[in-house]
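Project standup — Tuesday

K.O.: blocked on the structure for the chain from last sprint. Re-posting the sequence here as requested.
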Amino acid sequence: MNSPEALDTLTDRQAGHLRHFANLSRQPQNDWSMMQGRGTGQDDFGGYRFQLSYMAYAMALAHRHRLPAAPGLFKPVFERFMEKILLPEVWMYWARVSQGGSVFNMHLSETLKEEWNPVGRDNIMYSAYVQSVALLYNYLFDDDRYAAPGALTFKYWSFFWGGKERRFEYDQNSLHETVYWQMVESGYLGVACEPNCVFQICNQPAILGFRMYDLVNGTSVAAEVTDGYQKAWAQFGQLDANGHYNMMMAQDTRAVRANAGPSPWVDAWCGTLMNMWNRDFVHAHYPTQMRDWLVEGQDGALSVRSVERPLIMGQKVVNDDSDFGWAATWASEMGDQGTLTGLLRHAERYMGPAWRDGGFYFPRNDSQYDAEGNLTLVEPMCGNALLGYASLNVPNGLWKLYNEPIGADERCQPALVQVGDGVDVLRARFDAPTQRLHFTLRRCASSRNGFEVQIGRLAERGQWSLSLEGQKVAEGFSATIAHTSLPSLQLGEHGLRLDCRDFSDSARFVLAFRAT
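H.V.: unblocked you, prediction finished:
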């Protein structure tokens, strides 16, 4: 039987996924290496906005459920992702898409005007992610920096074209209000992605944002919206005649579009997110929905059955649907360990897993099948974000994030408040009954600097002792050191500072407190 410590400790690959997220976050501005998908223009399901957001969601789940006492590991990566998601390269597609012209809004293209503000109307497929990630940050790290006026500013200017600077200033509260009132004005059916196109999927992140807003501000917006959402969709049905999630609704005609194809990503994406507030409904329909997509392979490996990309207006649609990745995240949220294990086994066998600078991911591969017919397609959305998300999530992880708030006492517990870029955290959990902070660290072999970890929130904690691999190496009182045999342990700005440059293998620590 596995010990509690073994269950709490990240595997090498889980830690590798987190490092891959961090590596991508540290790439220079507008360096989108390894993130470019097959589509053009950032208007498809593999766009940068989706990759950035779901890596952030994966980190939120990993922090909350696996490494709750390591905010210093996650916070700076969140901040770098927020910087990237505000870049024009992520949202400039909206100036084109806002004008319509697709099969769903061609009839409106003469009346629609070019719109540069990416969050002013519609475009919930972007605005909800900015809203939810900013509010997740506030909730997880108790830091309201994105509530400052103009903290979420979308700006673009080019010397070569476009005239004056386009600048749209928001913050997490004004963006919340903008998204909320669009939701209300829709009768709670949801805000459009492209003009006239209300996707069930893309309104779920907004609901997550509303819930985070409630947890930060003590309001009940999410309950209002989800109650209205269920009543509004009851007249149409959230599921189609075949039991799959309806994909979208046309705003002007109220015509519902079923899961065309049908396609695995529609069910899996919607089910993964909707579970946070509609768990019984999602779990009830999951088994039959997932059964329609799974393909059995050898030795327990599982894949998914994707549909051929359609011809529309004489052109074959090029789009990163990430069917396989979404199926994995769905199985992880449902707690379907058998299916998740089978999918990850297939990915390991046929999807070319790789290590790069200490990070673990699945590189892009545009070949859909190998010579034996095994699925080998890996979109950046799948290989960078979704398979990492699925590996780091826990059963009902998003539901727990949504429904089990962080307590005031937990926010004051000792934790790793700063973690250098060169340190992997494999375990970080404070056990309140025993008053012990358990943490396991190691130096990332590919890193050349950033090996310090600071342990904070020690004020008024009384006497403490620090053990390394079961041997006591230091004692002190609150944020002071009485004596230590560990040269790498010193006092730091936030409490105890530990230099991890010598820990090339995992080093297990226990910081034990005794109240006075």
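K.O.: great, moving the ticket to review. The CA atoms of residues 12 and 280 lie 34 Å apart. The chain has 17 helices and 21 strands.
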